[in-house]
């Protein structure tokens, strides 16, 4: 396994060119958040916006529109059951994050399948939370796209069939090859499996063990792969690294780091890594 | 009476082990907040999340979902009259906080009784606010569980039958024995009655005399007893201590300390106490 | 005219006694905020809570419940057309603030009249904004209570019949005598007319000239007269003074001071004035 | 082209006179924000209030009322389809900002046309976002008013018919003359075309390339032209300058600057520019 390094992150977060506009930094559709789990999609959308994604649209249960906008006026909202609007937006975006707080009802399944039918081969597709379980339960066939899974160990067990205790590098790698997708296996010392290589994160601590941290990572990954699109693997690894790096920084003075606190530190931390490669 | 000391708190808030995940730090269900008193459950849920509880679900009047998520995306929400979902979640959690802003209508009573019927003997059950009054009014039989009451003096009078002026250590202790539950008697110099001992808090001041402080304590106690589960008494005493400790710190420069201000200081203060026992 | 001095404020904001609870520091009912002007009652309620009022209930249009709780979980909410609940709460509170954003519809008038019928002679009644205009338009008879009006110059013209240009101390005093109420006439160098004396404020600046500042003052006055109830005039003058004092402090570095920014400084500023009279 | 200078901004943001009230600093109606794009009008309204506009009313889809008030209690809200109330308010305001997140449905068009029919020749009318596209699509005739357009390059192409690559100073100036309105052409080095002169902004960077920045500028322009009404061109240029100046300041330590972060810095920055012309 290769270790994810600060050098890699610095190479990825380049200084922005001056002749750019919001469309230059990625357009992302985030789909998730039923009436019970709306917080998940609030966190994911916030993470994407604070990570510098140029334009974020959030497709969620309409019950979440107000709380989302009360926290994040920078996002646009649509009803996640409104297929026509989702289809329109799917044609314009560079990537999709689906699954955080989506739920596992027939309606959740229908939304996921609709995205699978309409995603394009050149788009990024981050699959998180409930969407991973829906795929495992219903044996869904993956679409043609740049797919990135973000399971924790139990979700990975359900998706790959590998029990947690047998989740060795070799077994995980074999399962990743079958999926033909990148896998971010969230755990103490998170591992990232790509088609070519396996990476390990050596930072991050137990101050991160709290609800919503995974949703936050999914939003960051979505923003990074659409914004730093010239190197997909590096953009994924950078999001994974910064997520834990910020938590460790905040965790020096906090017993637990809340996801929304982590999110607010993203712009400053990205600047630090970016400025170092002047 | 024994005095609650900083040493006790430091022994309780241990450094977190690295090989952990959000499930390692307690799963808590918080039930309360009717349409009028929604703020109570917002404060209690926030206190629990900021205290490091791994997973918090808030069962409340649906009118409170949006304001709760606007302040705290890290919690999950359910309708507190949805018995089926409450039952499902009750099977998974380590503890329940019930009563803050619950109200005393027939519907409130029904929710409380449903929890009493479904709580398990090994679970923690923190009973606060309206739930205390409902028990007193309707002479409810307590279920088998690790029960912790958080009354202020008037609520304790109603629950125990002891008039405020006669709430001596001996009388309170006798009443606690009959209840066979821990009692946190909130007052100037709060007292904690357990089956084995009586403790007194010597910190905390009148800057705390404002609405919502009790709801905040209930959420902290819920987070502490499920997170630091190897010593229930110490975890209770630590929550009680920190609640007043933070208020006194903030109160050095504020005439009144708002509960939501206290809550935001919890992660830093827990880190201070934790780091001191390196 | 007497000048309102810092000394007076320091004498008013006494250190809190230790043997107290939230009921010791005033119970206040704030009534206002129709669907259009909900912000007014959010600001007034926030000002009251941050001023240390022990228990605040906000009666408003239900459309405002969520935004209010999203900003201020420390308040309780009721529908301002729910007469039965208003009546119940009116029996328990020490004071009422009515009028900020109330509107001037028949429904607004009905609410105001209901409060006039149910207020008790020993209660404080702060009359602000729309309520002042309703009284002027409908020639309402004032109830027996400790009444405090908070008009700006145009509202005072409508209430007293004195054109702005003729609002001299003598004319204002005569009108105040007829009303038999305290009048806080908001203007550059605000004046306070009581039954016995006239006071003038020599601080406050144009950084305060923005929507919501008056609603904020009404909430502060409500909190001060119920909390520092041993001297009504001094408590009124202290609220008036601190409102402008804080604005001037914040205004040293801001071109305009938003009411919600002023509100957040209240607890610290009260502590400064309180600590100086050790 | 003339460069927009700090000196110009300092001359514009004069110290406020003491004998003033909220009506002295501009009354503004902001119209926009359908259910999907509510964030746009939250940002625009916030920008206007933080820029010192005395009284702001926001006409928007009622679904946005709660999120708006949760962030900004200082604004008043009305339903943007309520023609009667819009008409009443139009008679009182000094200016209107229309278009941010308005959408392009028949209902959006109807609102825009209603404003065009009721605006008065002496009022300022800032036309942003969807409203620009509606004018281009439906070939609307502009009303008599002080009109200011705030297009980005693509919107300008649609409005003027000039392809982005051909948007030279001469071509833009000719199109501006035909429109007989001020045009703020948002781009890297934003340009401002008035009837008499062309101005260029030499500050601002790619940290601003994120959704909501344009809505923020529209709100600032609305506040500046109604507040500093003695010199319309200077007030426009000052808003344009400060918008980018603040972003560049915050951008020194952040990789991306979120619009709501920029907005919170407006009062301090205006004070800096104002104090320098003591």
From TrEMBL, chains A, B, C, D:
The record describes the protein's role as:
Catalyzes the dehydration of the S-form of NAD(P)HX at the expense of ADP, which is converted to AMP. Together with NAD(P)HX epimerase, which catalyzes the epimerization of the S- and R-forms, the enzyme allows the repair of both epimers of NAD(P)HX, a damaged form of NAD(P)H that is a result of enzymatic or heat-dependent hydration.
Residues noted as binding (6S)-NADPHX in the record, renumbered to the chain:
40, 101, 152, 215
Q: Any idea which UniProt keywords this protein has? A: ATP-binding, Lyase, NAD, NADP, Nucleotide-binding
Q: Which family does it belong to?
A: Belongs to the NnrD/CARKD family.
Taxonomy, top ranks, is: Bacteria, Bacillati, Bacillota, Bacilli, Lactobacillales
The EC number(s) attached to this protein equal: 4.2.1.136
Top-level division of the source organism's lineage: Bacteria
User: Where is each YjeF C-terminal domain found?
Assistant: 5-273
Record bears the keyword Hydrolase: no
What is this enzyme's catalytic activity, as reactions? (6S)-NADPHX + ADP = AMP + phosphate + NADPH + H(+); (6S)-NADHX + ADP = AMP + phosphate + NADH + H(+)
Q: What is this protein called?
A: ADP-dependent (S)-NAD(P)H-hydrate dehydratase
Name the InterPro entries on file. Carbohydrate_kinase_pred_CS, CARKD, Ribokinase-like
Which residues make up the binding site for AMP?
186-190, 214
Complex formation: Homotetramer.
Pfam families cross-referenced by the UniProt entry: Carb_kinase
Q: Which cofactor does it need?
A: Mg(2+)
């Amino acid at each position: 396994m290769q270790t994810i390094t600060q050098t890699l992150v610095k190479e990825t977060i380049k200084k922005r060119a001056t002749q750019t506009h919001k469309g230059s930094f990625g357009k992302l559709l985030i789909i998730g958040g039923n009436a019970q789990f709306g917080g998940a999609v609030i966190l994911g959308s916030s993470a994407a916006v604070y990570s510098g994604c140029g334009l974020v649209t959030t497709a969620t249960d309409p019950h979440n529109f107000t709380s989302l906008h009360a926290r994040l006026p920078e996002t646009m909202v649509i009803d996640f059951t409104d297929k026509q609007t989702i289809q329109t937006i799917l044609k314009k975006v560079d990537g999709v994050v689906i699954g955080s707080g989506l739920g596992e009802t027939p309606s959740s399944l229908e939304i996921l399948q609709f995205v699978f039918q309409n995603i394009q081969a050149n788009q990024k597709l981050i699959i998180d939370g409930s969407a991973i379980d829906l795929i495992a339960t219903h044996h869904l066939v993956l679409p043609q796209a740049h797919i990135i899974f973000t399971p924790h160990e139990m979700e990975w067990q359900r998706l790959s069939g590998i029990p947690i205790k047998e989740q060795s590098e070799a077994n995980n790698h074999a399962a990743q090859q079958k999926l033909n997708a990148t896998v971010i296996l969230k755990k103490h010392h998170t591992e990232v499996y790509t088609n070519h290589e396996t990476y390990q994160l050596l930072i991050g601590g137990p101050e991160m063990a709290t609800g919503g941290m995974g949703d936050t990572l999914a939003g960051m990954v979505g923003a990074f792969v659409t914004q730093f699109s010239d190197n997909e693997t590096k953009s994924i690894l950078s999001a994974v690294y910064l997520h834990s790096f910020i938590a460790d920084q905040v965790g020096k003075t906090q017993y637990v780091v809340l996801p929304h606190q982590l999110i607010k530190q993203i712009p400053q931390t990205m600047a630090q890594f970016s400025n170092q490669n002047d």
